[in-house]
Design a protein that fits this description.
Blueprint: H1 3-16, H2 24-39, H3 46-83, H4 90-109
Helix pairs in contact: 2-3
């Protein structure tokens, strides 16, 4: 089987699994994480490895979508607060962040 034929098989399996965007590098990373599982005998065939890789890619995609929706919701809340005039002074916020960072550095050093 040539690499091109294998890639077409993988793309079709991904499509059936509902994964629209599949990149070879993402699949390689996922398979690399599965190699210890494959070597241990938990996954016995190549198709099991591919199915498991596709499951992991689906989970990553769901997590990415969830993170995006959470960020979007936070931005919308911030925009609504800004429209109501509930703004914070940027210099005060950055000073507070600097202090928090410094406190964490001191705590790590102790």
């Amino acid at each position: 089987m040539t690499p091109k034929v294998l890639w077409e098989v993988v793309k079709e399996a991904a499509s059936r699994a509902g994964i629209e965007k599949l990149a070879p590098h993402a699949l390689r990373r996922t398979c690399a994480r599965l190699c210890p599982t494959f070597a241990s005998g938990e996954l016995e065939t190549t198709s099991e490895v591919v199915r498991e890789a596709l499951r992991l890619l689906e989970r990553q995609e769901r997590e990415r979508d969830e993170a995006f929706h959470q960020l979007k919701a936070r931005l919308e809340r911030g925009a609504a607060q800004a429209e109501r005039g509930e703004l914070l002074d940027g210099d005060d916020v950055f000073e507070e962040l600097r202090e928090m960072i410094e406190e964490r550095r001191r705590a790590k050093a102790s």
